[in-house]
Amino acid sequence: MARARSRGDTRWARPPGGPNRVGTTRTGVAAKPLGRHAVQAVSAGGPKRTGGGPRYADRVTIYRSTQDGPVPLDPVSEGAEPRPKSSWRAAPFAAVRGGLVGAAESVPGISGGTVALVVGLYDGLIDAAGDLLHACRTLISGLVRRQGVGEGLRALRAVDWPLLVPVLAGMATVLLLSLKTIAPILESHPVPMRGLFFGMIVVSIAVPLRMMPDRFRVLDGGLMAAGAVLGFVLTGLPQAELDRPPLWLVFVGAAVAINALVLPGLSGSFILLAMGLYVPILHALEDRNLVFIGVFALGAAVGLGSFVKTLQWLLHHRRQVTMAVLAGLMTGSLRALWPWQDGEHGLEAPSGSVALPVLLALFGALLVLAALVLEAKAQKKKAAERP
């Protein structure tokens, strides 16, 4: 059992199997349980004494005890327990789920973030991406300030690689395959395919609502309505066509589209269509245009790095309202999946063969509903097995 003693305005703790001195917390911050292998510590070099007595930095960092010593984690909330790492034994299953996200991103109007929510990847991916960005920032900062790379390497080891690597590998592989298979089927049979996806997304709206920590409030309803309006407007943007887009537009388009990828309800492919970049990207991949692909990848990296930390903070500190907005975005994005549309993506009344799209919509809804039920049973069984 950890031992702690109070000394002035500091608390010192010794975790099981950890180092003797592990750090401090600020005055007035109640000691909270951080789990069996975690402790809380000030990250700004420890206490600094000034004329009036000891003074401590305001920033709090979570450290996890490992065989290599304490590993700093970028904090998402004071006193929060770090998310446990995934196991490499689950890597094949994670790759399959990542492949489903990649398949969704290949279809304009389908959000990879929505699929990530449905298959249970969303929180883990956002946390892993945030930890990776923190590790890279720490590593670069140590090199620039000539303080060494030890802390950065420890932060890199703390990233949930068993989740991140297989998910990204499965996503990239299936995305490239889907651009050759699913996208052509959607182009040749748009009405029934959109009907299938429409039914799937309708049921998926329940996912962020179920992930709310508290009961649904009037404020949540207003935010959900605002998100629905925003999603409806964004998915109604006219499609642009550019034969040779400038590289600066490719960079900006990648930065915007990658943020749409991590937001449920918004399709990165649809954003690229609206900016006239979807077809040029397909051609660049076919022609192996490394300059075009490199600029796109750089823009995606910059865009993701500037947004993921904000989203990670919102998920941990403002989860209720964040899930309400995400549910609204998913609702508004149904406009892009309405089966009957004209050549300019305008909405039309049902016409022609209505039975097939409706049946496919019901099939898609039942498919997602069955997945949610199985997931709920698995979570309930896992909770029952915990000591």
Describe this structure in words.
The protein is built from 15 helices and seven strands. The protein has 387 residues and is mainly alpha-helical. It starts with a strand and ends with a helix. A three-stranded antiparallel β-sheet has the order 3-6-7. It has a two-stranded antiparallel sheet with strand order 1-2. Strands 4-5 form a two-stranded antiparallel sheet. β1 (3-7) and β2 form a beta hairpin. It has two domains: 3-73, no CATH class; 88-341 and 352-385, no CATH class.
Task: Count up the domains.
Answer: 2
Please state roughly what percent of the residues sit in beta strands, choosing from under 5%, 5-15%, 15-25%, 25-35%, 35-45% or over 45%: 5-15%
Number of strands: 7
Q: How many helices in DSSP terms?
A: 15
Low-confidence segments, ≥5 residues, pLDDT <50? Answer: 1-80
Query: Roughly how much helix do the residues carry, as a percent range?
Result: 55-70%
Provide a quick synopsis of the model.
The chain is mainly alpha-helical and 387 residues long. Helices cover 57% and strands 9% of the residues.
How are the SSEs placed, and which strands pair?
Elements: E1 3-7, E2 10-14, E3 38-42, E4 48-50, E5 53-55, E6 60-66, E7 69-73, H1 91-105, H2 112-118, H3 122-144, H4 150-157, H5 161-178, H6 182-188, H7 190-204, H8 206-210, H9 218-234, H10 247-262, H11 268-274, H12 278-287, H13 290-317, H14 319-332, H15 355-385
Antiparallel strand pairs: 1-2, 3-6, 4-5, 6-7
Helix pairs in contact: 1-2, 1-5, 3-4, 3-13, 6-7, 7-15, 9-14, 10-11, 10-13, 13-14
